[in-house]
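FAQ
Q: What does a multi-component entry look like?
A: The components come first, one per line:
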Amino acid sequence: MIASVTRLARLVTVAAGFALLATAILVSVEVIVRRFFLISLNAGSEISSYVLGIVASWGLSYTLLLRGHVRVDALVRHFPERVRLWIDLFALLGLGLVAVLLLIQGFVTFLASWSMDAHSMTPLQIPIWIPQGLWVLGLAFFVFVLGMLAVFAGMALLRGDYRKSQQLIGIQGVEDEAAEALADVRAITEAEGARQ
Amino acid sequence: MIGVALSLLGLLIALSLPIGAVLVVLGLILSGFYSTFPLWRAIGETSWNAATDTVIVCVPMFILMGELLLRSGIADGLYTAMVRWLSWVPGGIMHANVGAATLFAATSGSSAATAATIGTVAMPEMKRYGYDSRLFLGSIAAGGTLGILIPPSINLVVYGVLTQTSIPKLYLAGFLPGFLLSALFMTTIMLGCTLFPHLDGQRRKFDLREAIQVLPGIVPPVALFLIVVGTIYAGIATPTEASSLGVVAALILAAVRGRLTWSVLATACEGTVRTTSMIMLIFVAAFFLNFVIATTGLTRVLNDVIVHLGWTPLQTMIAIIIFYLILGCFMETMAMMITTIPVIAPLVVSMGYDSVWFGIVIVVLVEAAMITPPVGVNLYIVHGIRRDSGSLNEVIAGASPFVLAMCILLGLLIAFPDIALFLPKTFE
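Then the predicted structure of the entire assembly, as tokens:
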């Protein structure tokens, strides 16, 4: 289950990245059109801000699955493994609490925009509930992934399967973070070597 | 009240709760204690507003631009050019490390990417020409940090949004200190190699023809710089729009150089969204905490506490700098910035310091944080690029003279604020 959810989360993440790319192209076209044809569309900056909100909320889950949300391990890294892993679960639940609150209140905000039929005060007059709805859906997916991880990691801990739990919710140290940036660069260098 | 808040903050962070969650939980507790209104109900609204801020859109765009540039292979040409132009100076190609990082920084908003890119190209040269590994590795780690001081800069954008400071002004303010720091780094290398010749490697000489031959290598970064920064001051684009132009330019650059494949695009997109989500979670949470702090009047209380200490503005500034130097040893830098700036920047401004100036000071402190152990990301990146089995301590030792150079810059900034403020004032 975790594997398929991770696949889905990655798919969504890549799609979100392409949405950003498309927005960048849209905004660039707008700038060029404005400069050379003196036509002001002024839609790009509004759209790009909605895209950012939606992209960020949909990307939360994959970032979580890759343990990419920032935590400080200066103290807990000195604890015994078992204690540390229970703290990891506690940290996950803390994030879960915040995410649930964000989801509920985000949904309330969405409902208010929907029932008032609020539109943006720009030439585009976009109904706000559309981007807000997509944003809230991203949060809902995040809460789902958080819940799933909590259940699986909790079960692994109770079974005494510490390695599994570490894999799921352990802290990603600065060493891992650097290793990842390097793996990226290496992959590029290798692709380069293959080309030549 | 302040004591309670700070202890709570410290406890939650130490228990390794994700930083975004720490900020929201702290906001909830503070509002529970000090407000009669259910402030938690506002979190939907504040989060939506923070998540769709039009200026913060720069952040994912710069990350995407960097991801594409990293894969476009422009670093090789740039580095070769720098080696041929700078390696006659005492310290040789270590100057190329700093010079290439300086130029690459001007096109990239991220320090880790700059260090990784330049480091990969530079590493083979270290053994080949017999450089002392410590200073050589330190120069890469330190040079990489210039990425966030010389515009464009993700960190300056985040600072600008958190403090409502103008991004074009912050960019202008970053130039001179950025180039000054680059010069200080080079001076550090030159001094080091003059005093301790064993640190230096085999000197290489190139004739003028060879030097001119490699000049095309610096065209792509210069062009990108003009697009992402130049368009702002030419009045063609806003900073946000300029960042989008940068993405498209990087895309074209990668395509022209034949590096653009679907898998490259997908990897770049994935990396961008992950980093964006990581930053935005903290950003959105900080906005909520900020809202609570403002509503409950905590800023005023904090201000009173500082005033009560009876310190002069200079003493307070030095205390703040020491605080950041220590905090930077333990905390991821973007998280550190977003967590502390909403509280500290208003204090600093109320003491009579310029908000633009303080932005530059903060970014220099963040740079120092990137090369101080145990949590200095650039140290680990440079260490990871090594092919020999040297220890991390060598990188740490090699980076330390550059931390000193940063402290000198901070001193200069305090003594002569115009180093940062001259350009913004001139172009006002």
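Q: Is there any commentary attached?
A: Sometimes. For this entry: Chain B has a mean pLDDT of 89.
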